[in-house]
Give the backbone structure.
Amino acid sequence: MSPRLALTLTFAAPICWSFGGPLIRLAEADPWTVVFLRSAAMTVVVALAMLALYGRHAGAKLVGIGRPGIVAGLLMGSTFVLFVFVLQHTSIAHAIVLIDTAPLIAGILAWIWLGERVRASGWLCLILAVVGNGIMVLGKAGRATLLGDALALVVAAAFALYIVLLRRHRAIDLLPAVLIAGAAACVPAALLAPALWLPNTPSLWFGLLSGVALASGTLLFAAAAGHLPAAQSGLIVLLEVVPAVLWAWLILDERPSGFELFGGLAVLTALAMDQVMRRATVKPEP
């Protein structure tokens, strides 16, 4: 895959994910029921995508991911489940700020494990984007507990390790690992959800559509992110919150605050700076 295509698909991933928040809000259901519906819908969408892409070789492709793919899938699936636990013990604002440290963790892990050094300008862009996301949730601090914050950091670390695994094993087609992620999240959600179906048809569809958005973004990210430096793909993930605020305004009539506008501008500035600097200095990626 060419670096340009990988970059385009990686940027498309957080835009797909950004629809999840408003759709989940519209579902108006128990969090565990929503997780089950999202994960089940995601599993079905990924299975259909694999059949469309691989045909009768889909099973062989799934087996071919090996241990790295299984670990990657379990890591990604764990973030879906742990995020609900996080929200039960801390505020959304705290969760977002801590989970958004994932790109910084990914940059450090890639440096240690893969020898992939991040330029000083790259660290600057990462920090600016993380700070921008933090600014967006100012004024929404809410409650926080040590357990909730610790779980949020676990989610960040799990996602960071997922990013680095995609980069480390980019020679393997890890797209089928997304199927494992969805299936892995279904199991605990099914055990903890008070109901596995919603009698309210609109709520049911919103819950399922959030899974389609999740599957689309995760498939794009799994296919493309491994072809970019881990710190760069992690930085791009932070774009998600910007369109999410826009969808919340357009769909839920939640007008963005000054903090959200300023923080979103900081995130976009960081992404633009990173692209400009990379075009000026970066060598072609393998």
In short: The first helix runs from residue 3 to 17. The CA atoms of residues 21 and 254 lie 12 Å apart.
